[in-house]
Design goal:
alpha+beta, 8 strands
């Protein structure tokens, strides 16, 4: 009888070790899945909490993450009504004809004293076609000085 009891205890110990190992492996696998998915959703906000369950094991509770739709994955959203512009630059919809950070093409920045007019960086203080602002043309023979036509 004692030999059968030892075998039973041995089988129970091996079974419990096997269950713990499988559980740990599945948690590690789900953590790897989560970290891979996290790269896709870095711009979302969520708080995670570590709790203890009734058996004394720690578990990670996660709130649902909201997914932001970006134009990088769905470029047609830039053509939707109310969108800032039809071009997609760095996951944002922009109008390359007006945006100072993406003037004419993605990543082309205007200097601090320039504005973006029709996709070109211009200085509105001295440009006769864009005097004081975009499309504000001075008359024939007039000069643009400090953003005013015929200042002087």
């Amino acid at each position: 009888m004692p030999m059968k009891f030892r075998k039973l205890v041995f089988v129970l110990v091996v079974a419990s070790v096997l269950i713990v190992t499988i559980s740990a492996a599945s948690q590690q696998h789900s953590t790897e899945k989560y970290s891979a998915a996290e790269d896709d959703h870095k711009d979302t906000d969520a708080d995670d909490a570590i709790t203890m369950d009734s058996s004394g094991h720690r578990s990670l509770l996660q709130k649902k993450r909201s997914r932001r739709v970006t134009c990088k994955k769905f470029p047609m959203i830039c053509h939707a009504k109310g969108s800032p512009g039809p071009a997609c630059c760095k996951k944002k919809c922009v109008n390359v004809l007006k945006d100072r950070q993406n003037c004419g093409k993605c990543g082309k920045k205007c200097k601090y004293n320039e504005v973006c007019c029709k996709g070109r960086c211009v200085n509105p203080s001295f440009n006769t076609k864009h005097c004081g602002g975009c499309n504000n043309r001075c008359g024939n023979g007039e000069f643009c000085v400090f953003g005013l036509c015929n200042y002087a």
